């Protein structure tokens, strides 16, 4: 059975999704593409499964409306495009945490580094477009909710457009008291580099760097750092679609990030932007109670 | 367009191929499966593209007959299932060698380790079933032909069925004078472990271990070693089929290992078995001249 | 020439110093040992070179008095026992930072983990006894002064004596705007583990783990984590004394951490304790202006 | 007590030894230096402890005469300068092998790479001056004797003086059937690089690379490779002398490599040179029975 897919929005990521659904993923066919971005809640109301790139909505209120439409329908229809949950390294890390091998998590140290960003990238996007990936994947890894956020700004790099605060360090606390520090540095120059280390009561688990040949030449042992997110997370994007298509083909609800997760990410990134704009105040995250409809945190 | 595929032989690897073509790879459909293994040359004669698991043939003579049938047809029809050429690490290594970053290759150090083998695995299979993967991928990596082979036998492990010579060390020389040492150890107990390091005039390039989370606990920093070839080379199998299906869909000749490569592998493994059985003599590899039909070595 | 050394204080570290000066370091002899800890300022006033284990003084005021006595004498007499400046890894990191290879420093991520501490270890000691090593080495690495500190407390590990806040995260800002995050976890169970990564405008430099054999067995590639600070920093302690003895033998001023550095460390650790006890307030560090006597920061 | 030391031979390594004994090692003083290299057996006959740089003797016969003189004296006087036994990595490897963690050894894979050698370095020196270090350390690591050797010559690097066969691959077999392959490449250009991996029935243990900071910049994660043997084995030289001086000060026999080990190394390197000059024949090593005087192999 081939799953028929309509694509709304054919920008950079949309085009890459179309390529992937057509050339890489089995069991799917793109049958319609439109670049008119009508309200997503309307789509959800139509009763079809929706894969929605992040952000689910640009405001928390819009996110709540998507959830209302979905609950009116009676079953989960929406999966949000947080692909890191499908990355093999993060999945191994979750397995290790679940196994208890490193004990109860206490702290997470993260870095999200990107070589450069264009002039159109503004300071709020550090949370909204970049850190949002860690926000989602950490909620999932820890099976916990983020309760406060503080954004502090180191000395800015000279290698940025001058309006941008870069790098930024984000400090999150979770409901269970786990502390997360996240460096976001979007003009780090040297490559695309994702680091994550979870420290538990008995040990720690660290995300691997991607496998790459080691070269010894001219006095140095070197391995290449990925250039961009496409090469770093290409396999995760494949797996994300493969599992989503399989869930639809099986008539099952999607198991990936839900509209609840998309809503939570929006609330948390809003709080991060508020902290940044307030000069680094600690902002309490004001998330609604989790509806039973979305199950327990996974 | 969906490529219709008939599968001949539904043993362990055949069943895994069917699963992969059905569930993982886009653009292909398995439309017939038979477990009767009729002569492959007959199949080739039918004029259809053939993906043939290694070995291409159990004797060099049979391999030559396949090539004759193929040339009679006038274009390449056969691709042999040496999946390592599709592994990301080996491909990076080939790119590095081609780039000249480590200079002209002089030596290659390899290891092929497998946790255990059953009683049915006999000493000749170390070359025929196991080392054959290195034999193919090294011919391709070095763009060179293997000219002699010597098999020496270290002290045998106690953890094997007693009829088996395990481990074995194979020493190859190429037409260009490159020396290759390959440890093959099929009862190494600890995991499935593939190592390859090419040393050139200016430096070396080393195959990476698969990416895996690092865990610190109980006084140790540890990463998991793969358990078996399925987990180690799963992505390579995917890529192998994806590119083969794409070449068929495009009406092009396959670009993977040819029947020539399958024939060469058979001749070289035959020589290795002969060296083993002779107590370690250096055996000259007697490969026919490469027909122009199969192009220059790639 | 053999340098004659009197040792005041023969506790755990004092005894290890005596052993090292006697058995490991050439050109030195311990000629007197007393366990009566008279005022250090008095010793300095006597006009002899002094190697003083950290802390230089238990209060900032006492530290200032040591400096006054030293300046009255007219030349540097005191070296404080911050041994990390003599560790090969930190020295390499300083060389890299000085070379400009990673650009202007913007952030430093650190971790200081210790397997367990006894009941006598109280929460203030996390700054005073443990983090003080990072405080000194980071001032030296960055050639910069720490201007504020904030201590936040993650969920506490269950594997501690209940009076202790463990782990703690310390956030420092420097005069130049560099942001430092330091995890201090003194009951981490798994080993003694020191991590430090400095991120600059063009790249980063990371402290190596100590060299240790890699072992592959039972499905795992593992390397041992050091058990304690003695094995991790044994070579640094050797180098510290060797260079100090050499400076005395040469009649030169010591080049290691000065009484100024000891004073600064006390002021900063006091601020950290104040932040901890205040529930995580940001505390401005109130260091006096650096006297010209102690030169520019190194 | 200070051990008085006379140095015979003040060439490159001799001068470095004098520096080390004077500036680094405690408890020793160099009290006489002569550059006249009289017969070493004479020195041994005088009844004083002798630290003899490798080679113990330039012929096996001279080595036997040293042993006769030593036995006539009635106790061990000679320690030969094979410093690798004092390297922390090799010592860890020996501990792992002794512990049984990787099972009975079956194979060892080694590489000894040096950036360049001068015109005066001739092909026989690959065994005599370079591989001799592996020959000694492997006998000690495995607690086993080398029984045959074969030297094969890959395609030569263009980056050498034309009279030199470089690289060379040496294949050793031990009395217990362990197989060792050793790449010796003395013009590898990129640095000084020592690799050693012992494969046992249950796993393997690998020598670590020296600890060095990791740098991420310009798309690469890099660590420096040592430039030369002085930086790679500096600590091993220190430890070698420290333990030797301590054994003398204690009036004990030296525990390092004995004149028996020096003799064995000479016989084995002679066999390697013979194999090289014969075009790669397998040469049986003709070592005399080990005298009880030198104890069991350690």
Automatic annotation (TrEMBL), chains A, B, C, D:
> Top-down, what is the taxonomic lineage of the species of origin?
Bacteria, Bacillati, Actinomycetota, Actinomycetes, Kitasatosporales
The UniProt record lists the Gfo/Idh/MocA-like oxidoreductase N-terminal domain at 46-82
Top enzyme class: oxidoreductase
EC number(s) per UniProt?
1.1.1.18
- Identify the keywords attached in UniProt to this record, alphabetized: NAD, Oxidoreductase
Q: Check the record and name the PANTHER family matching this protein.
A: INOSITOL 2-DEHYDROGENASE, PTHR43593
Free-text function comment from the UniProt entry: Involved in the oxidation of myo-inositol (MI) to 2-keto-myo-inositol (2KMI or 2-inosose).
Query: Which is a Pfam family this sequence falls into?
Result: GFO_IDH_MocA
Catalyzed reactions per annotation: myo-inositol + NAD(+) = scyllo-inosose + NADH + H(+)
Cite the HAMAP family for this sequence.
IolG
- What is the protein's name according to its record? Inositol 2-dehydrogenase
Chain's gene name: iolG
Q: Which InterPro entries match?
A: Gfo-Idh-MocA_inositol_DH, Gfo/Idh/MocA-like_OxRdtase_C, Gfo/Idh/MocA-like_OxRdtase_N, MI/DCI_dehydrogenase, NAD(P)-bd_dom_sf
The UniProt subunit note reads as follows:
Homotetramer.
Q: What family does the entry list?
A: Belongs to the Gfo/Idh/MocA family.
Query: What positions does the domain Gfo/Idh/MocA-like oxidoreductase C-terminal occupy?
Result: 94-280
């Amino acid at each position: 059975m081939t799953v028929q897919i309509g694509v709304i929005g054919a920008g950079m990521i949309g085009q890459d999704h179309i390529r992937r659904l057509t050339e890489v993923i089995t069991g799917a066919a793109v049958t319609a593409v439109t670049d008119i971005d009508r309200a997503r809640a309307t789509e959800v109301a139509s009763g079809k499964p929706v894969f929605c790139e992040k952000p689910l909505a640009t405001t928390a209120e819009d996110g709540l409306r998507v959830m209302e439409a979905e609950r009116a329908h009676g079953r989960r229809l929406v999966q949000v495009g947080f692909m890191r949950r499908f990355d093999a390294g993060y999945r191994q890390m979750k397995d290790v945490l679940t196994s208890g091998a490193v004990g109860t998590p206490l702290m997470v140290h993260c870095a999200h580094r990107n070589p450069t960003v264009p002039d159109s990238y503004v300071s709020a996007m550090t949370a909204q477009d970049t850190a949002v990936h860690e926000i989602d994947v950490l909620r999932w890894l820890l099976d916990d909710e983020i309760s406060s956020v503080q954004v502090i700004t180191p000395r800015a790099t000279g290698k940025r457009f001058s309006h941008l605060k870069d790098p930024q360090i984000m400090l999150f606390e979770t409901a269970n008291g786990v502390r997360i520090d996240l460096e976001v540095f979007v003009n780090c120059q040297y490559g695309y580099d994702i680091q994550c280390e979870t420290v538990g009561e008995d040990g720690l688990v660290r995300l691997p760097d991607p496998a790459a040949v080691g070269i010894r030449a001219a006095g140095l042992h070197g391995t290449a750092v990925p250039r961009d997110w496409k090469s770093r997370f290409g396999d995760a994007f494949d797996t994300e679609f493969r599992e989503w298509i399989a869930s639809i083909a099986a008539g099952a609800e999607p198991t990936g990030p839900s509209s609840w997760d998309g809503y939570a990410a929006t609330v948390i990134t809003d709080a991060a932007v508020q902290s940044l704009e307030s000069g680094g105040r600690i902002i309490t995250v004001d998330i609604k109670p989790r509806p039973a409809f979305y199950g327990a945190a996974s």
